[in-house]
């Protein structure tokens, strides 16, 4: 991928040294072009309006709140994908970020290849969670969905929806699902939208976690391993 087709990104974080390191990693990759950088919620929103990037990275605790910025960006520029950067693994922070519209959640201790992978993944329309955060969210979703009669909802899925549901749970991207099932990516996206509506979920991350819970329950328990890319 040359720079002409590089993914455009804004990096918004109030720690200048960290921000510089992220920008250098992206520039060195040759796959991601940083089109703006900021340190506050207001700067992140102004840059989003000005640059219309493919992806914006938001520090969850920057001045003005990264989560507040995510909510406003999601409302006004829904095509911009959001990745939250944080030192926090707290369940409430992760869930609040996902509810605000983030499709990626990455710890600041992550290595450069993980940052690049996260941006590429969300830009492609999929979701990305650091693996340890994914495992924590898995437990949270299990508890939340326990009273939803999830099994009966899953049982009502069509054959195609059930296939997509299971493949999302295995960590496959929309493109991989399309290739595996012989349909177009837009068809996969349609099935994902139907899954969200039928299961009463808010985003692809919850579909993946619920699918893994369902698979684990059918096998009689055990622990499900989450990949970063879901």
From TrEMBL:
**Matches recorded under SUPFAM superfamilies:** C-terminal effector domain of the bipartite response regulators (SSF46894), CheY-like (SSF52172)
* InterPro entries hit by this protein: CheY-like_superfamily (IPR011006), NreC/VraR/RcsB-like_REC (IPR058245), Sig_transdc_resp-reg_C-effctor (IPR016032), Sig_transdc_resp-reg_receiver (IPR001789), Tscrpt_reg_LuxR_C (IPR000792), WalR-like (IPR039420)
Protein's UniProt keywords contain DNA-binding:
yes
SMART domains associated with the record: HTH_LUXR, REC
Give me any GO biological process, just one. Answer: phosphorelay signal transduction system
- Residue limits of the Response regulatory domain? 8-123
Q: Where is the HTH luxR-type domain?
A: 150-215
Instruction: Name positions with the PTM 4-aspartylphosphate.
Output: 59
Report if keyword Transferase is assigned.
no
Q: What is the protein name for this chain? A: Two-component response regulator protein
Lineage of the native species?
Bacteria, Pseudomonadati, Pseudomonadota, Alphaproteobacteria, Hyphomicrobiales
